[in-house]
């Protein structure tokens, strides 16, 4: 019943694969529309060109990132990386978002463990804002904004959850929701495509520990995570990160009407609880 299988990572045990990537049966975008020649009607619309893939993370229906073994975890993160790099190199693609929805309130329509990758011909507004702010900071200060923020957070240590060889896990200063976390590479990397094999292996372990901490503090709550990254490597001003957003606080009318978040939780208290949680 599967649609086109794009790739598999081989496994020793039956059924013989660890991860499998397929085309989405109900894609948000399609390569059949063709790359857009130009925006139409003063930028009000463009073709729905792009790619939408489903990353099946394990053959086990009861599997989860927080409980899988090391080979399974490594296969998942390496698959994220391969799909990001492959899609980012396609004609007309400006952004690739690799993301995971967990739980019904997190937007997961299927219970089998999976993530998704969407490649678009436009720059998503959120990513465009992140890129512009980072570019402006670099133009003023000659330094990467995320590198500067990491240095500050490490010196303060109030919102740090974990520090590993290659990554920092932190609750951001202006967290939009309780227990929001970022996993940030310590080495300057503009694009997720720049991560090397050793960093991907470590990212798999750090991601699992982070999700275990989250489960301990808030239970098996719905969440979303996304790899927030520009598609093109090498930019001095950009720095990718993996953002985890638990869905335990419902946005209200003010959030809808203003685009601003009200977080009832203290980022410093959240970071301490997560830091002390077993991983």
Describe the structure.
This protein has 2 domains: 5-120, HIT family, subunit A (2-Layer Sandwich); 125-276, HIT-like (HIT family, subunit A). The radius of gyration is 19 Å and the shape is globular. The protein has helices at residues 70-88, 125-141, 145-156, 197-218, 253-258, 267-276; strands spanning 5-10, 17-23, 50-56, 95-102, 114-120, 160-163, 167-170, 181-185, 223-228, 241-246. The model has no long low-confidence stretch (mean pLDDT 93). Helix 1 (70-88) packs across helix 4 (197-218) and helix 4 packs across helix 6 (267-276). Strand 1 and strand 2 form a beta hairpin. It is built from 6 helices and 10 strands, in the order βββαββααβββαββαα. The chain is 31% helix and 22% strand. The chain is of the alpha+beta class and 279 residues long. It has a 10-stranded antiparallel sheet with strand order 1-2-3-5-4-9-10-8-7-6, with helices on both faces.
Q: What is the CATH H-level superfamily of the largest domain?
A: HIT-like
Give a short account of the largest sheet.
10 strands, antiparallel
Indicate the low-confidence ranges by residue numbers. none
What structural category do the secondary elements indicate? Answer: alpha+beta
Termini Cα gap: 37 Å
Please tally the helical runs, counting DSSP H or I stretches of 4 or more residues: 6
What is the percentage of strand-forming residues?
15-25%
* E-strand count: 10
């Amino acid at each position: 019943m599967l649609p086109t299988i794009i790739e598999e990572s081989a496994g020793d045990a039956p059924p013989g694969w660890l991860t499998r990537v397929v085309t989405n049966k109900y894609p948000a975008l399609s390569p059949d529309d063709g790359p857009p020649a130009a925006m139409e009607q003063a930028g009000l619309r463009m073709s729905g060109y792009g790619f939408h893939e489903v990353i099946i993370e394990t053959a086990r229906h009861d599997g989860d990132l927080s409980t899988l073994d090391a080979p399974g975890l490594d296969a998942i993160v390496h698959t994220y990386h391969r799909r990001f790099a492959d899609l980012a190199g396609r004609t007309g693609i400006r952004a690739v978002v690799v993301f995971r929805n967990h739980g019904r309130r997190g937007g997961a329509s299927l219970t089998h463990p999976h993530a998704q990758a969407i490649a678009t011909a436009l720059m998503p507004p959120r990513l465009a804002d992140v890129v512009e702010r980072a570019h402006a900071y670099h133009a003023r200060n000659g330094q990467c904004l995320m590198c500067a923020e990491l240095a500050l957070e490490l010196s303060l240590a109030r919102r740090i959850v974990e520090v590993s060889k290659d990554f920092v896990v932190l609750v951001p200063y202006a967290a939009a929701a309780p227990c929001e976390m970022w996993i940030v590479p310590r080495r300057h990397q503009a694009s997720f495509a720049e991560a090397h094999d050793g960093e991907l292996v470590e990212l798999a372990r750090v991601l699992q520990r982070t999700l275990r901490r989250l489960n301990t503090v808030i239970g098996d709550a719905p969440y979303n995570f996304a790899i927030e990254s520009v598609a093109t490597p090498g930019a001095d001003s950009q720095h990718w990160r993996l953002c985890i957003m638990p869905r335990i606080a419902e946005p209200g009318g003010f959030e809808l009407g203003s685009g601003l978040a009200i977080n009832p939780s203290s980022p410093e208290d959240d970071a301490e609880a997560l830091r002390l949680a077993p991983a």
